[in-house]
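Notebook, p. 212. Picked up where the previous page left off. The plan for this session was modest: take the two constructs that came back from the sequencing core last week, fold each one, and keep the raw output in the notebook itself so nobody has to go hunting through shared drives later. Recording the first one now, exactly as returned: residue sequence, then the structure token string.
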Amino acid sequence: MSAGGSGPAGLAGMKTGKLPVNAMKRSVLGQIRTKRSEVLSGAGMGEDCAIFSSGPEETAAVCVQEAVLRTAGAGAAAARQPVREADMALADLIVKCANNLAAGGARPVAVMIALLLPEAVREPEIRALMAEAEEKCAELSIEIAGGQTRITAAVSAPLATVTAYGAAAKGRDYSARAAAPGQDVVLSKWIGLEGTARIAQCRRGQLLERYPAWLVEEAASFGKYLSVLPEAEIALTHGVCAMHDASEGGIFGALWELAEGAGTGLTIDMRKLPLRQETVEVCECCGVNPYELLSGGCLIMATWDGPGLRQALEEARISAVIVGKVTDSHDRILLNGGETRYLDRTGTDSIYAVMPHSG
């Protein structure tokens, strides 16, 4: 990460421009501790790019994600902004990037983080953001390899762009286009986890009027399930052919994207789609469709041996279920008992019906 300029930092607001050097050293670079051998040159003063090693049998994988950040404290200006469901924690944005790499068959190695911060931000808040990022990266064994931190009057809330880098085996394709008719469709964990956590955090008061505190708190804690790195790693050694991480648009959107990418059809048993009871209750209370709700933490896998993959995941204490088949037609069919319906491309994620989004 690079920065320029000078001046006092701390509890006062920031001046427009790059983060002051001393603040950069204290609150950004000083928070980065996790290291990986693949990163030959990473975050540091005056370092404007990162250098990565690549083995003879590997290729590089890259993913970029951006979001308005939801933080515990991001300055007076940001504090006046309404809580919005589209806003993300920086840690969750890092997980989202890592999940995208893992679903592509890559091993996440490093991230670069660009932060645009409002003038009202204070240095302790920057330090807290970077500490949050480092904690999540350490958990995922990912190095923060660099980025930019800039103060600007153009934003009223923190905005982050995370670019993640990974290494993948040469000659292997685990994208949606690798799914083929006859393969089983396996889901890990549960659908709607990410959306359930965000709604429970933002609508806690409303939910507590109807449900016991333990249920609301458990729903709000679903962020602990968002990483799909463990199941992706297991899937790679147990016959997976294609992977796709469910996210915005919910499980319906993710299944449609899988079939569209493969140019195939699907037959899915809706009764087998795994739902936590907390998700059912939160969605019912807030009028949200759980099947079109943010589903980060759920990995869709296509394989010729669904029972074998499911068993491998369950032996690792990762819940998994076979929900259907890839078919040789272009029909995306949802079965629900005696009822049959067709899966269409989903529109806006149903979480946006709960609160205004940041777009």
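Okay, moving on. Second construct, recorded in the same format:
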Amino acid sequence: MNKRLAIILVLGLAVLGLGSIGMADRLANGQLNVGFGSPVPWALWVVFYIYFIGLSAGSFLISSLVYVFGIKRFEGVGRLAVFTALVSLLTALVFIWVDLGRMERVFLPFLRPSFSSPLAWIIWLYTSYLFLLLAEGWFLMRRDFAAARGNGIKDRIYRFLAFGTKENDGEGQKADLKVVRVLGAIGVPLAIAFHGGTGTVFAVNIARAYWYTGLFPIMFLVSALASGGALLTALAAFIVPNGYEKHKELVINLGKLLILLVALDALMEVAEILVSLYGTVPAHVIPIQQQLVGPNWYMFWVLGVGFALAVPLIVLTTIGRKSAFATGTAALISALGFVGIRWNIVLPGFAVEDLPGMGRSFFEPHWTYGFYAPSSMEWQVAGFGVGLALIIFAIGYSLLPLEAEAHQ
């Protein structure tokens, strides 16, 4: 394990340790100590859920540029993209699991699904997508697993994961890549469907005018591509050994793709805001005002506009065109900033009461209508999920042959 992965692992263990306090509270007391209330059933954990789902879908769709469309310039992050998509998916599922009022009922959509519900559809799509990622990752790496000859722990794990695959050979590897191409081709519409479906869960809420628009599923997909592309660019620069030095061209090419994706996301965000403000309909205007000048304004201006969009675009279109280090740094800032974009998808939707006076019909001492601040327990549980993701990523990257293509 290189130093950067070791830092990620230590950070993950530290955050997981602190987060375990909140997770124990969540398991023991349910949602007693959360900062949201009945008028706002979706809060911080849903923000992180759609954030990580976006990272997963975006990473996978970028991997399809390599394995489905044959764009060789991104081949160095092909395996890494599939692995990142898998880790992000698992993390997203942890966040939506802890958000359930009855966590033990997580399996009921498989036993008693209602296929008239978009939620049921995306659960089945997530499951299919999970198995597809596992299969694609295995076909990409099984020849490397079969080549293991030592007696160390890593070699034993490789031989087990080979599942009887014979020694690596050129013809066998070509056959595996053909399977990967088929799986990737299936995965492209699947990733679009499940992440567009996540946006549809919001968009079909007729009572929430802020969400009730056909543009929402498309915005989810564009943000997924931008955030996933940003994360992959940062990983290529700082996690792949000597990434921004030895693989400068790869990182800068990813940065050029990121310019397009971030600019498209910014365009859609601006269009949504301007159209809503021009219409002057309170159900649309009030949520926008909450973003711009509300109590959590910094989520919009600092994280969303500043980190996710403006700073990366400025850096990537100037010094990032020649400096892989600057490109990686801008991408990392953008990936973190998309938490603000996701926040402003979820929380402003609850800024307007479903019915006049509805907010006053709930007696919840910790809740003030129109303002939401996550409790310490919510942040701790979020830390648990993020820490788990960092640990899985660090260990998985150290054990799996994810760098093979980067060295070709």
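Notes on construct two before I forget. The domain at 35-374 is CATH 1.20.1630.10 (Formate dehydrogenase/DMSO reductase fold).
Flagging for discussion at group meeting.
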